[in-house]
Amino acid sequence: MPLVFGLLVVFNAVFLAWQFFEQQNRGQAIVVMVEEQEGKPLQLLSERTDLVATDTPETINQNTPTVKTRDDLACYRVGPILDRDMLKQVRAIFEKSGFDVKVISMNSSSAKYLVYIPPLASAEKAQSVLAELQKSGVDGSIVTETQLANAISLGTVSSLDKAEALKSRLSALGYRVESQSTFSAHDEQWLLLTHVGSVAKTQIDRIITGSPQIRRETTSCP
After folding, report:
1. Angle subtended by helix axes 198-208 and 84-96, to nearest 10
2. Tens of pLDDT along the chain (222 residues)?
3. What contacts 46, CB < 8 A, 6 or more positions away?
4. Bond into 119 cis (ω within 30)
5. Residue 75 in contact with residue 163, Cβ under 8 Å?
């Protein structure tokens, strides 16, 4: 029995010594880990460059609104409108469509060309020649003015080319034909439409469609 008791005491002593050294080793390992963690600097998420979102030039350009300046707009004049009632109607249409409209007056001069057969010897002769022309499908009238009395007017045209074409036609029928130009000056009424964009420009063309005497012209803005 004393031998068994002695062995138990020795065994317990060895076991306690092993436990003591095991705890010492674990404590040192923990201390080392803590020291290593405490020595490592902390870094906030906002300080990490790989996680911070930056605005690229493409993103900024996409989010920047496009501002339309007056330099991108144009001014137009619509006319000429010779009839006062028609002027009021067309102006009202543009104003209801949202246009800034002003009425402007412009002085215009235009050339007209009178084509005629020179004065004949008598009114009877002029009437006889006029009857022959009408049989050939040519319309005309006898001039009663003193300077061209007994001449036969073949009409007034707006260009020299048209006058020459009419003269050639009558010359082919055997008649002597002449022409003279006259100039007339008159005031024209136009509508000034200011600061018009590309979409509104198309709307202008739609409004004046069907009125061949009215046209749209680009003009300087006031």
Report:
1. 140
2. 566 566 666 666 666 666 666 665 555 444 444 444 445 555 554 555 554 444 444 444 555 444 455 557 899 999 998 888 999 999 999 999 999 999 998 887 778 899 999 999 999 999 999 999 999 899 999 998 878 899 999 999 988 999 999 999 999 999 999 999 887 777 889 999 998 988 888 999 999 998 888 999 999 988
3. 52
4. no
5. no
Which amino acid does the sequence have at 169? R
Q: Which residues contact 167 (CB under 8 A, 6 or more apart)?
A: 115, 177, 178, 179
> Can you give the pTM of this predicted structure?
0.41
Task: Please report, for residues 72, 73, 193, the alpha-carbon distance to residue 220 in angstroms, rounded to integers and kept in the order given.
Answer: 13, 11, 11
Alpha-carbon distance of 147 to 145, in angstroms, equals 6
DSSP label at 144?
A: -
With H, G, I as helix, E, B as strand and everything else as coil, classify residue 169: helix
Q: Report the topology of domain 66-222.
A: Alpha-Beta Plaits (3.30.70)
In what side-by-side order are the strands of the sheet with 141-142? 141-142, 152-157, 101-117, 178-196, 74-81, 215-219
Indicate the domain borders of the chain: 1-64, 66-222
162 vs 156: CA distance, rounded Å: 9
